[in-house]
């Protein structure tokens, strides 16, 4: 066949193939559009409220005759708000649930969305079903209910937060949200008036401006929202006094008012609580602070809930975080909480308390990593996590709520203390039948025992409160020991114990718990080769543990050091200098942190047999990537390093330095630790050691090891004769040590694997210099 004939045959085939491709694309688009249409027209019900109350909903149009709306386009316009109220409703009412949105409002929202977005790419709002019952009677179960003001983000409408409002109402709160003309995207009043946000009131347009100009732009809108909250509270107080319909008369507890908001709504809540004492507590959901609260702080209990900003390293983000931290630092210690999603300590039970798959997988990974005990740090284990601990065989120190309670200043209000006491007592009653729980720990790091030494009256008050809690725990469960405060050591307050605690009959629990940060804040493991940890912290005939033996906190996303410590305390820099920063390889920090953790664990096991009952290495959950996902979780290097250090039978070398010189005789000690899971003595065996550089063996030997009783240590003197010559003036290598019985390895240990900082042993030619 000639070339022209081939070309004539090829062209039709190309055309047919292209036509088929076009047809497939058209069919695919049609199928996609059809599926979007079906999805658009499908009915959906909002997530069910989790509380015990039914939910009612009422909508009001409130006008402030005394004040004008400063942001209205026409001067002199009175302030007017569309107010939505969700509240605990009387049970058994036959009325149907209300529409998600009133029809006039729904039509305007769909008009703004447009034909494509509103007709295909979003749900038909008429098919969305809430749980609130229109104008239902208020539940008679309580005389009155606390009030929560809810502010939406930026120009968002408050109905976008319906699920959250309904859930709060189901738990016994009256939730009040509102939209404002000219500042909310669209407001439709009951009489049919439609008012949209004006461009100059769009706070989102403030983004990208210079800092000072941006603050002026945002504060203009923020001031109006703050004034709106004050007006809403005024009207609620009037409604509580004389509601024309009688629904809310005397049903609102205006002495318990909370304010929360999202984004700019969070900033509004923060500044309002600063300005108005009617706010008794508040929450900022991922909102950047603005206003005078940044410099002046506030005094009410407040919580920050932040999304994951760990990958944002710009100067503006740094300043926002610094502002939040400044406000947080000035809040009363017993009335503050800061949560960054994807962050916690020890086990990830607080991240996903009801995730059975993660609970089982993480607990099993910990057990496989030779961890046999943990603590429920600052957030108690849920039933899901305790069930996993029971199943796997993980011991749990069950720690109470309200960490850092009574840390500074006078004790909290007696009502708050009673809530704290009842809350922890209820948890103990709920979980005391779980075999995994081995002890109860009252709180995390109250530390007043030492902080208030110079204020005897305050110290006595706080010990009275703490002792009462310990005795309450004993009355509920007399079978388990108690840690009175996670960080309390009797030895560290010996004078106070002899002069106050013991003579007053205060109960300081059964176990001492010393929090230490060796190599992180405190001196490294090299300072504890002679058992200094136990010698300084233990009390005769009283168990000593550490539920917080910390060596650093990598981020679960990427392994870089936690930013709080990187930029506030500079602790990661003490390990690896500038390699700690986020433009460097996180493997460098992870390698050094793994080395410090492993060596510290070994030092304590070698030297504290008689003075220490156990160590919880901290923070265990930070030593995993993607710790929130049962499918994706992967250990960092520290997990494997600690697994080696926690072998039930451990062979560990006491190395003060990592530089060996040619021709010298090196004398070191090796410790065999027998914590065998069988509970049996380790019968006599051989210790085999080997020095290597790459594939080359430099020296080798073996020693006889006598029997090591169970729960004891045995020291063996090791003498290594270095060869007179080396392949090069300096070589890197490793020292391997293993126990062998009947040619079967019992335990092994390798020091200096690889060439990363802190892990390599250097072998050098003979020299008079020191390294």
Whole-number mean pLDDT: 86
- Give the percentage of residues in beta strands: 15-25%
Q: What are the low-pLDDT stretches, counting only 5+ consecutive residues below 50? A: 3-7, 115-120, 341-345, 753-760, 766-771
Please identify the structural class as seen in this structure. Answer: alpha/beta
Bulk shape: globular
How are the strands ordered across the major sheet?
A: 5-2-3-7-6-10-11-12-13
Q: Tally the helices: what do you get? A: 18
Rg is: 33 Å
For the record, give the distance between the C-alpha atoms at the N and C termini, rounded to a whole number: 82 Å
Largest sheet entry: 9 strands, mixed
Q: Give the number of DSSP strands.
A: 31
DSSP helix fraction: 25-40%
Folded structure, characterized:
With 771 residues, the chain is an alpha/beta fold. It contains 18 helices and 31 strands. The strands form eight sheets. It has a nine-stranded mixed sheet. Helix 10 links the parallel strand 15 and strand 16 (437-441).
Features:
31 strands, disordered N terminus, disordered C terminus, 6-stranded mixed β-sheet, alpha/beta, 771 residues, 9-stranded mixed β-sheet, globular
Helix-strand layout with pairing:
Blueprint lengths: L2 H39 L2 E2 L8 E15 L9 E12 L13 H19 L6 E2 L3 E2 L10 E7 L10 H9 L3 E6 L6 E3 L5 E3 L14 H32 L9 E11 L1 H12 L5 E5 L7 H4 L5 E5 L8 H15 L6 E5 L15 H13 L4 E3 L7 H10 L2 E5 L14 H18 L5 E5 L6 H4 L4 H21 L5 E2 L10 H8 L10 E2 L18 H6 L6 E7 L12 H7 L1 H6 L9 H22 L6 E5 L5 E2 L8 E2 L1 H9 L3 E6 L4 E3 L3 E10 L10 E9 L2 E10 L6 E10 L8 E12 L2 E8 L9 E4 L7
Parallel strand pairs: 1-4, 2-5, 6-7, 6-10, 10-11, 11-12, 12-13, 14-15, 15-16, 16-17, 18-19, 19-20, 24-31
Antiparallel strand pairs: 2-3, 3-7, 8-9, 21-22, 23-25, 25-28, 26-27, 26-29, 29-30, 29-31
